[in-house]
TrEMBL record:
Recorded superkingdom: Eukaryota
GO CC annotation: cytosol
Alphabetical list of InterPro entries matching this protein: Glutathione_synthase (IPR005615), Glutathione_synthase_N_euk (IPR014049)
Descriptive protein name: Glutathione synthetase
Natural source organism: Macaca nemestrina
GO molecular function, one term: glutathione synthase activity
Length: 132
């Protein structure tokens, strides 16, 4: 179903209010970036850039994206399971970025302890996982 954005785009006051609400939502949802003025501080952040309206994508490009999606997913999965590759690739980032370093520490801890997260199909109790 096509949407006609013309009337909204012509109402500057309504458009400004929509943009303000979108920024507030982005901040509330954690769509954040550190600022260039304080690149090492997690206390000073701004919202990440986003578009307010959908963008047209040529169908040929969309088909190309669909065509490589499965291979890309397999690549991401393989990389996520190669701890040595991840550590080597992220080593310089880990040294400079506290957030990435903390994420990688969590990754190493999970590798060490194993995945202990319960899914919706199990009941995690003190006795361990039980199928529901």
């Amino acid at each position: 179903m096509a949407t006609n954005w013309g009337s909204l785009l012509q109402n500057e006051q309504q458009l400004e209010e929509l943009a303000r609400q979108a920024v507030d939502r982005a901040l509330a949802e954690g769509v954040l970036l550190r600022t260039s003025q304080e690149p090492t501080s997690s206390e000073v952040v701004s919202y990440a850039p986003f578009t307010l309206f959908p963008s047209l994508v040529p169908s040929a490009l969309l088909e190309q994206a669909y065509a490589v999606q499965m291979d890309f997913n397999l690549l991401v999965d393989a990389v996520s399971q190669n701890a040595a590759f991840l550590e080597q690739t992220l080593s310089s980032t880990i040294k400079q970025d506290d957030f990435t370093a903390r994420l990688f520490d969590i990754h190493k801890q999970v590798l060490k302890e194993g995945i202990a997260q319960c899914s919706g199909a199990t009941d995690c109790s003190r006795e361990g996982k039980k199928h529901i």
